[in-house]
Design a protein that fits this description.
Helix content is 20%, strand content 23%. The protein has five helices and ten strands. Helix 4 links the parallel strand 4 and strand 5.
Length: 189
């Protein structure tokens, strides 16, 4: 694959490749969309099964050392085919794809026409994951997430509650804060 427009993958081909260990799927949309909120015109909320979350909004926040650690933690490797998806019109998938190519990922493709087309077909699976970074809370309900700035007091109650009663999804964690506590309960009925 050369410079210019990246290769694309149709939703049909992506569906056939979901279980292929040589392929990884990357969700470039905002965290709330990845976890199930319908933010645009998608018929259903969620993400492709097994997709890792790498939102375009993070790209300018990562130095090269942090980027390498993040890619490794998410199981993304240059030797795999990487399919990036987002909303059809926002350019996030293309931005993440270019960012990956700049880090040596040779076979980066974009899901076209985008997540909206995937979600429109009810025969295609979607997952809904409540998450704090990538510590997935599948099927759980996060009541409170407390985060603390590096160097804050470690005493109980000294954290900054950033998410309370989140219900069907979580807000984005604040940049530069470390998740330290998650209280779990039953998913609301």
């Amino acid at each position: 694959m050369g410079v210019g427009r990246p290769a694309t993958v149709t939703p049909e081909e992506a569906a056939r490749r979901l279980a292929d260990p040589g392929w990884r799927f990357v969700d470039a949309r905002p965290g709330a969309a990845h976890r199930g909120w319908r933010l645009e015109s998608e018929a259903r909320g969620g993400c492709l099964p097994g997709a890792v979350h790498l939102p375009a909004s993070w790209l300018g926040l990562l130095d090269e050392r942090s980027a390498a650690a993040l890619l490794a933690a998410k199981g993304l490797a240059p030797e795999r085919t990487t399919v990036v998806y987002g909303y059809e019109r926002d350019g996030a998938a293309a931005a993440v794809g270019a960012w990956l190519r700049a880090r040596g990922f040779g076979d980066v493709r974009l899901l076209a026409p985008g997540f909206e087309a995937w979600a429109a077909d009810r025969a295609r699976p979607v997952e809904r994951a409540l998450a704090v970074e990538d510590g997935l809370l599948q099927g759980a309900f996060a009541e409170v997430v407390v985060q603390r700035r590096p160097g804050d007091a470690e005493e109980e109650g000294e954290g900054v509650p950033v998410l309370e009663q989140v219900g069907d999804g979580l807000a984005e964690p604040r940049v530069g804060l470390d998740p330290v506590f998650v209280a779990l309960g039953e998913e609301p009925g």
